[in-house]
Design brief:
This protein is mostly helical and 371 residues long. It has one domain. The chain contains 12 helices and 2 strands; from the N terminus they run ααααααααββαααα. Strand 1 and strand 2 form a beta hairpin. The longest helix is centred in the first third of the chain and has 44 residues. Keywords: Membrane, Transmembrane, Transmembrane helix.
């Protein structure tokens, strides 16, 4: 039998729809290649800036400067590494203790992110603080190091929270709210830093003329950030209708949820910045507010670069924002931050993941029906 122009069970898509979807698919394909390329360029540029800065600082002594100029690349790396190693060696033991406590504060606040999201969903009952803390710890330990925080964070939370009865849609909301809480805290603290210390952006102009920002403009940026935070709070307080952005619908959380975000997000960011602050030398230390602002700028730049751990990008931006502190000392403090905030949590989290997956496997085999 000859088939007619319309086959049963199939519908022909209109030509206009096909034409409109093809450019969108092409654009998505280009973006999939563009973002990694931008990240690679950012890393190369940042590493070059970082290397020149470290070499310049290491070569303040005329004898060392001669060695840097006449020696090979390997000799230069060895000299710079020795200077950084010396800066780490002179960090007092109490600074390491304080950095460790700041790390605990940061990760405790990150666990609070998950708890806040569960409260928003009304799913906090039956899930202990210990379980939430372990899930959050593993999530951020992996995502901070892998770089794809939404993907890796979503996968870990999906495995953990579906085991506690949450649906996939609820886990997606939880991940989104945790990410928003971080962004909320960044805007809140960065807005305050720009209001009180607008000159923090001045040194960025040395990296590129694109980044030349006057103090007045910096203050306006701070006001804009705080205005967004205020609008979000007012929307929650007055119970605004959900905000629609295309297909995305943003529902304002209840005011008690927002109040918790005001506490948890700054606490986490202050704890993470505190690791660097305690590891910096007293001489030339610009104070916690400047260190906090430098951390927010550099950490955000690292996230936007899509580079795992923001390697290179974070260091370059941080060094640019703090020209008054010795570059090897800043680099040493950032190495301590990576050790406490990234590497040690990753090492601890891997056995936790293996233990959880083993328990899940035992549970699934126990409840599986006999053949």
């Amino acid at each position: 039998m000859r088939a007619g122009p319309r086959q049963r069970g199939r519908t022909r898509r209109p030509a206009a729809l096909l034409a409109s979807s093809q450019p969108a698919g092409l654009m998505k394909r280009y973006l999939d290649y563009l973002w990694p390329l931008i990240g690679l360029v950012a890393v190369i540029w940042s590493v070059d800036l970082l290397w020149e800065k470290l070499k310049a600082e290491a070569g303040t002594d005329s004898a060392i400067q001669t060695l840097l100029e006449q020696g090979s690349l390997w000799d230069n790396i060895r000299i710079v590494a020795m200077r950084i190693g010396h800066k780490i060696a002179v960090i007092p033991p109490e600074a390491f203790l304080h950095a460790g406590l700041a790390t605990l504060v940061a990760y405790a606040a990150l666990a609070w992110y998950d708890r806040i999201a569960l409260l928003h969903l009304g799913k906090e009952k039956g899930i202990s603080w210990f379980y939430i803390s372990l899930c959050s710890f593993v999530t951020y330990a992996l995502s901070h190091n892998i770089g794809a925080s939404v993907f890796s964070g979503g996968m870990v939370r999906y495995r953990a929270y579906t085991a506690k009865g949450l649906s996939a849609a609820e886990v997606a909301v939880l991940v989104a709210l945790c990410s928003f809480t971080f962004a909320f805290g960044t805007l809140l603290l960065m807005g305050l830093v720009l209001l009180y210390e607008p000159e923090i952006l001045r040194p960025l102009g040395r990296m590129s003329s694109w980044f030349k920002i006057g103090d007045g403009t910096a203050r306006l940026m701070g006001v804009g950030m705080l205005a967004f935070v205020a609008l979000y709070t007012i929307g929650s307080w007055l119970k605004f209708r959900p905000l629609k952005i295309g297909k995305l619908e943003v529902i304002y959380p209840r005011l008690p949820i927002v109040a918790r975000q005001y506490l948890a997000a700054p606490l986490e960011l202050a704890g993470a910045a505190g690791i660097i602050y305690f590891a910096l030398p007293e001489q030339g230390n610009p104070g916690f507010l400047i260190v906090l602002g430098a951390f927010l700028l550099s950490f955000s730049a690292g996230l936007l670069s899509q580079v795992p751990g923001g390697v290179g990008v974070m260091e370059a931006v941080f060094l640019a924002v703090m020209p008054g502190v010795s570059a090897p000392a800043v680099f040493a403090a950032l190495l301590i931050w990576r050790l406490f905030y990234l590497i040690l949590p990753l090492v601890i989290s891997l056995p936790v993941v293996l233990a959880f997956e083993r328990a899940q496997l035992k549970r699934s085999t126990r409840i599986a029906p006999p053949p």
